[in-house]
Design goal:
With 287 residues, the chain is an alpha+beta fold. The chain folds into two domains: 140 residues, N-terminal domain of MutM-like DNA repair proteins; 127 residues, Helicase, Ruva Protein, domain 3, CATH 1.10.8. The protein contains seven helices and eleven strands. A hairpin with a 2-residue loop joins strand 10 and strand 11. Helix 1 packs parallel to helix 7. The radius of gyration is 20 Å and the shape is elongated. About 6% of the residues have low confidence.
């Protein structure tokens, strides 16, 4: 599943291509995504101008006048852009096969700028929800989300208060979207490595220095990932065809049995399962 950096790249890519465009038609090929698409959705979006595209956690939000369209890509959702005059395709999402199957193109947003925005989703775990006359913070899906990693609200004081007396390991805490939003398995593994924290360490045992270091490294790994265009575990390209390169900088994720990347460390990267997710750590420097 794409994480914060990948969704941020998709947001930026879409913004450059379709922000300011007007939707002139919406074609639904398959209503049966995670939540069934209502018949009213196309009618309510026609002639609406895209005023802004934003991201909250792993959600994309399309802003219209008095309307908000919330999109979640699920496991395999992706946005494609086709230029009408020559059918040139631009791919903007994280997971996709090089050979796109048209049968998985579930929604077509026809725009007035000569482009067509297509939602393609093999597994159909993604979804779209339209909200009218509502503020972003009032949307049910976003209400319980914790602060963004780059937000000033995600600070030492906040973390200390949140973890007090909690019997939860740090890996699961960082994956908890009510604690901090947007983090996923890849970047949690990498941030814990940089912070020299074992993924099973109980969060309530973290001292102030470790918390400060962890916040710094979470932001560091996310910034690098965004600058590198995301992680191309399978393939990821923005609308300009540039692949994500962050996987070349993985220290622990997917590096099982390899030597620790720290020159001064003699450890090996180990793999364990935490809450049914693969977790990677150095058996020497992460203690």
């Amino acid at each position: 599943m794409p994480e914060l950096p990948e969704i941020e790249i998709v947001k930026r890519s879409l913004f450059k291509k379709i922000n300011g465009a007007k939707i002139v038609n919406v074609k639904i090929n398959n209503k049966n995504l995670r939540y069934k698409i209502t018949d009213a959705l196309p009618k309510k979006l026609i002639n609406e101008k895209i005023l802004k595209i934003s991201r909250r956690s792993k959600y994309l939000i399309f802003h219209f006048k008095n309307k908000l369209l919330l999109a979640h890509l699920g496991m395999s959702g992706k946005f494609l852009i086709i230029r009408s005059k020559d059918k040139k395709m631009f791919k903007t999402s994280f997971y996709y096969d090089l050979d796109i199957l048209a049968k998985h193109n579930h929604i077509h947003f026809i725009l007035n700028n000569g482009l067509e925005l297509i939602y393609n989703d093999v597994r159909r775990f993604g979804f779209f929800k339209l909200f009218e006359n509502i503020k972003l913070k009032e949307i049910t899906y976003l209400k319980k989300l914790g602060p963004e990693p780059f937000s000033v609200l995600f600070c030492i004081k906040y973390v200390q208060k949140f973890i007090k007396n909690r019997k939860k390991n740090i890996k699961n805490l960082l994956m908890d979207q009510t604690f901090v939003s947007g983090l996923g398995n890849i970047y949690v593994n990498e941030a814990l490595f940089l912070s020299k924290i074992h993924p099973l360490r109980q969060c309530s045992n973290l001292e102030r220095k470790s918390i400060k270091n962890l916040i710094y490294n979470i932001r560091k790994v996310l910034k690098i990932a965004i600058n590198q265009g995301g992680s191309s575990i399978r393939d990821f390209k923005n609308v300009y065809g540039k692949s994500g390169n962050f996987q070349q900088f993985f220290n622990v994720y997917g590096q099982e049995n390899k030597n620790c990347s720290r020159i001064s460390c003699k450890g090996k990267i180990k793999k364990i399962s935490i809450s049914n997710r693969s977790s990677f750590y150095c058996n020497v420097c992460q203690n």
